Amino acid sequence: MRRVWVILQKEWLELRQDRLILIGTFGPAIMLTLLPLLGMWAVRHAPDSPPQDDSTLAAANPALLGLTGREFGQAILGQQLSVLFFLLPLIIPSVIAAYSVVGEKAGRTLEPLLATPLRTWQLLLGKTLAALLPAVAVTWTLGGIFVLGVRSIAISPRVTDAIVSPGWVIILTLCTPLLALVTIALMVAISARVNDPRTAQQVSGVLVLPIVTVVAGQVSGRLVLNPPAALGITAILALLAALALWAATRLFGREVVLTRWR
């Protein structure tokens, strides 16, 4: 594991020295955290209205039944925008992995690295951890800030409970590393076909589509992130992460790097 740690330190040193990567990594993360909080703050200062008694809506999401107009607005806005929060484990590792794998390929610095006694699994593990650990740490940290912000801005505890639901907490806790792993594995697989980090990031944008589907489901009331749904999503992501990592290791070969990545 000493070689893996060396690769990890090397990747983080390069990351700290590149301001563009840092901005591309943490800029969107901060924006996606502040956006729902700013929206909830605006709703808090809007005129109030009578409680919402939509039986259809309550059947889909009982946490919204009986809320006043401002409470309802905060809860709906917070629920919908909090789902966008799960873009973070897609954005952060995609930026880091694009420059970590494809960037080295474009800069012709990966071939000398592979000429060392370093094994392929050690290289991939080091680069995976270099992208995975910051993604998980930043997402969980900003998730904690988001929860504290919701509690301070929410008009009532019912609004907080509607937004920071058990299902949302399960998704944040369990799905964050799985989403990041799928993203990193996809970047490694893409690196075998492209030479430009920007192209790799654009191709990896397909991972945003499932999040958009979840947002649409919440807006329409057809999907509520309750614990059973969250655990089901976690199980699916675990399977996808395992398959993606297996495929990435199969596609990444030393011979391909040394003969075709030119």
Low-confidence stretches: none
Distance between the termini: 30 Å
Q: pLDDT average, as an integer?
A: 76
Total DSSP E strands: 0
Helix/sheet category: mainly alpha
Percent helix, as a range, is over 70%
Strand content: under 5%
Order of helices and strands: HHHHHHHHHHHHH
**Number of structural units classed as domains:** 1
Tertiary shape:
elongated
Tally of DSSP helical segments: 13
How would you describe this structure in keywords?
mainly alpha; 262 residues; single chain; 13 helices; elongated
Write a brief structural summary:
This protein has 262 residues and is mainly alpha-helical. It has 13 helices and no strands.
Question: Can you characterise this structure?
Answer:
The chain is mainly α and 262 residues long. It has one domain. The chain is 79% helix and 0% strand. The chain has helices at 2-17, 19-44, 55-60, 69-84, 88-106, 110-114, 120-153, 157-163, 166-191, 197-204, 208-220, 227-251, 254-260. α5 (88-106) runs parallel beside α9 and α7 (120-153) runs antiparallel to α9. The longest helix is centred in the middle third of the chain and has 34 residues, at 120-153. The radius of gyration is 21 Å and the shape is elongated. The mean pLDDT is 76.
